[in-house]
Hints:
The structure is a homodimer of 617-residue chains. Chain A has 27 helices and 17 strands. Chain A is α/β, with parallel strands linked by helices and 617 residues long. A 7-stranded mixed β-sheet of chain A has the order 7-6-8-9-11-10-15, with helices on both faces. Chain A has a 5-stranded parallel β-sheet with strand order 1-2-3-5-4, with helices on both faces.
Amino acid sequence: MNQYPILDRVNSPQDVKSLNRKELKELCVEIRKFLVEQVSKTGGHLASNLGVVELTIALHRVFDTPWDSIIWDVGHQCYTHKIITGRKDQFDTLRQPGGLGGFPKPEESPHDAFIAGHSSTSISAAYAISRANQMRGSNSHAIAVIGDGAFTGGMAYEALNNAGRSRTNLIIVLNHNAMSISRNVGAFARYLTTIRLQPGYLRLKDHTETVLDHIPLVGKPVKRVVQSSKAALKNALYHSTFFEEMGFTYIGPVDGHDLKALEKAFVQAKILCRPVFVHVETTKGKGYEFAEKNPLIYHGISKFDVETGNPDLPEEDSFSVVFGNYLTELADHDDKICAITAAMKQGTGLTPFCSKHRNRFFDVGIAEQHAVTFAAGLASKEYIPVFAVYSTFLQRAYDQILHDAAIERLHVVLAVDRAGLVGDDGETHQGVYDIAYLTSIPGVTVYSPTTNEELKAQLYKAIYETEGVVAIRYPRGCDKKIYRSQNPSADYLFLDERGKNLAISYGRIFHDLYAVNQKGHFGALLKLNKINPLSDELVEKISAYHDIIFFEEVEQNGSIGEHLLLQLNQLGWRGSFRSVSLPNGFFKQGKVPQMLKEYRLDQEGMAEILREEWETK
Amino acid sequence: MNQYPILDRVNSPQDVKSLNRKELKELCVEIRKFLVEQVSKTGGHLASNLGVVELTIALHRVFDTPWDSIIWDVGHQCYTHKIITGRKDQFDTLRQPGGLGGFPKPEESPHDAFIAGHSSTSISAAYAISRANQMRGSNSHAIAVIGDGAFTGGMAYEALNNAGRSRTNLIIVLNHNAMSISRNVGAFARYLTTIRLQPGYLRLKDHTETVLDHIPLVGKPVKRVVQSSKAALKNALYHSTFFEEMGFTYIGPVDGHDLKALEKAFVQAKILCRPVFVHVETTKGKGYEFAEKNPLIYHGISKFDVETGNPDLPEEDSFSVVFGNYLTELADHDDKICAITAAMKQGTGLTPFCSKHRNRFFDVGIAEQHAVTFAAGLASKEYIPVFAVYSTFLQRAYDQILHDAAIERLHVVLAVDRAGLVGDDGETHQGVYDIAYLTSIPGVTVYSPTTNEELKAQLYKAIYETEGVVAIRYPRGCDKKIYRSQNPSADYLFLDERGKNLAISYGRIFHDLYAVNQKGHFGALLKLNKINPLSDELVEKISAYHDIIFFEEVEQNGSIGEHLLLQLNQLGWRGSFRSVSLPNGFFKQGKVPQMLKEYRLDQEGMAEILREEWETK
């Protein structure tokens, strides 16, 4: 590929170490071209990766993986790292089934020290690795690369609190991204701003507004944050003490696009042999302009994607959008309704709510634990909090749901988005465990809509007609509109009651079971809308059937089918029961339709199973 | 009661507001007498409560519950609060079945604003309440009272990060306890020390050691901490900025035993009408000396209890102690074994390990999330981390177990203590959900010993013969020594194989099932040692039986019996299955034997059930 004369020569970290300054500069340009070209074909996280090209190269020039360990927080900014560590030829398979992962994966390469996907874990992992190195007498370094958004996650502080006292070779690289300030809530973001405006960095000291105008790419967001607290700016002139007080040596701020400055800072950090905090400033989407100038070549990358860096925006008609719009509508007429997000406002469809009801909208940062307990606190004062959160991220708040909300039966509504298989993001993002953990918490009601009407009806019921903790879980994507709602408010529906065979399902795949039933009637059909708890009355009705097949897009352990079988058993039922679910396991990246097919949860698979079970009888 | 002339007149917060200074001083003495007298009879947390007598009285003199809300973090220091708010006459039922709770309980009194039990939740809850107040236009205050130990929990930072920007009537009272410094790990503890040594507080500035010697009750612990970082002490002379940078107005430090000073600080905080951080310094066990001088009257309170404040120390022969000693022994011969605790070193039996293998012992503070990811990081470098943690507290690390350890099958050992019903601490501490959440995570192996020999054998297997995440769960207390181990390393044992009836159990209650079987043979008896996953081979053997009864001391949803029934069903098994477990619910404080009896999980109940099921056939 003549486009990439320097990149062609880079197949391992050793290769970047041997390039000269001119070649390195060219390499940065080539990598950006490569990233834009690849991601425009496969999809993926573009902006965050464009922001860390120099940072990644500098790390590999100063450190030596896999002897040293680089741990990427969240991990979607690992593309340049993967390119450098011998995986550039796999980029056409990025996020594809069986292909290169979009996140670090130790099983892929020894250069990937630790798994990533969820936020704020890198310092814990890096500190542990630095401790292990210390215990075995190795001089290797552990480097955590973490964005400022991830610092809103409490785990990061738990780790900092432990790491700062140690004398290990631990380096924390704070990837401070100017563009994410508007989305990073809270005091810490403001604090970071104060660190940026250190004496050596400021050109003018007199007027706040003028100073801010002179900081490239900062402009409006920072201005809004800082104006709300003049005191913070005063502190900007002080020596920043937070990280030192936590026990780290502080180096920075460093221009994250100046390769030479980065290398110098990392060398300084490396020789210190004690915990160091390197504060790097990058610009998300840096270097994108050339792609903007070549739209025909680089089609498919919308400017919007580059600005937010989020490739996972909900489609127009998706459940997330339907949810967000309807919640906003309900909130128009009821000022007790509040919405909470953990840094996923757009992804969960809450942008309209935030616009219309700003004083009742709470973005708590990447802090699911706090989000749930905060919701419980609002509920204790008769507000109606709705926390919209991805199934996989809600895992982090298990204790808070149980302890802070459920014991006192506080009325907290959980809108669990991305429930079920998610596809491209792989093992770290699948939403197939929430049924197990939610149904393990006493008193939690769980709804699972199949259609838009059901989503709205169930949201209404969750808010106005259900006590205690209520969850509504729905998948990524849209209403398939095969099944059209009949009585969307009902807890369950027998759509067909003839015979002794009963097929049961809920959620997205009910469309498919319904389609199968329309084509060739196999037996009675039960649709669950409220999936937990199943009332005694319903279980009695189910027990009238002799052969039951339960299809669900969730892991087997803790599934609704598993609970139902025991309940039927307790009634003395002795019929035939078959649970068709996902196996207990982790699910690699893939396309959801193919994955459902693999587990016979698509129309073909279901039809086959129904025939297997019932045509032989 | 002539002993309590002032206390007799206190039946509501209004009553403390009307006392004069002399009476208030006397009240403090009487409350301490009362606490020592009561807790020596019922048991409970004495030292922490002795430390906050003045603090609590001051809060009730300045604020007005329930219009204002006081939220106690962890909550076991709420006794004076309960005395003042009309519950002193119930103290003889403290922590007894059906009696006064040892933690705040909204259902008990409107003066208890929020549930407590787990750490670091108070700021989230208080901030939410302050937001709710603001939204409804109320001037009420929300006050979180949180100890410095709880600041090691990441949730507290998530909350601070959100709360600091707000303009709500939120007050955070940091109850900074000098005696807990030696146990609070990390940079934050050291930082708090620096705040204490402010200019107005220091008498000498020249020599570190001399200064420290002059600070009452600080002495050795602080000296050890500060000497490890001279830089921190220098900062002591600066104005502390951390809390202000987080957006709070800082007031303090305030002498936590000077009622007048406390009231003044709280009044200042109250009129500010914006987030305030009041730094209060207390001494745990303050005022205990008079009890020491009257040992005949106040028998039952050991000085050790007062010093540590921990009434839950493991008995000499408990599973915790057996575990800790054996782990230490294994670690004597294998320097890869590491032990981790989240601020529960004594409770989990790890004191010997800490003494012998200090460099491989990690107390991470109240930070279970970090503990698990830290363990995963150690495992990624071939160390063998054993995290000893209470079942109820491990709930907080659900996401980390799944995401950071299990996906990559990192070899992390979880020693899950206080599994099963715990008794006096009530709903917030029961360990009956871990089976559901652990078995919902793919690849997790779970062992459950009944005897000391099995605990050791299973710990050995977990460390040396099992891959991936392994949990061993055992209850509070000791080996009941009814059943004596036969083949403690086996995954399961058929102790009796005759007939078509099979009773199954595991863990602590297996002693009882065994005893019942000894007295009158009811059928075959299966003991599970490894309870998850159940091998295909075992399930096949079980399927040879026609009538099965499964006894387990765990919640029904997600139970082993529930999983087994589905597995049997998948083999085409059509026998009779009865699961005898705890219902899905929360369990109030009580005595464990009585609770087991209530759910028929004691010998009598089991025998009855076996007769019911099998004698009629």
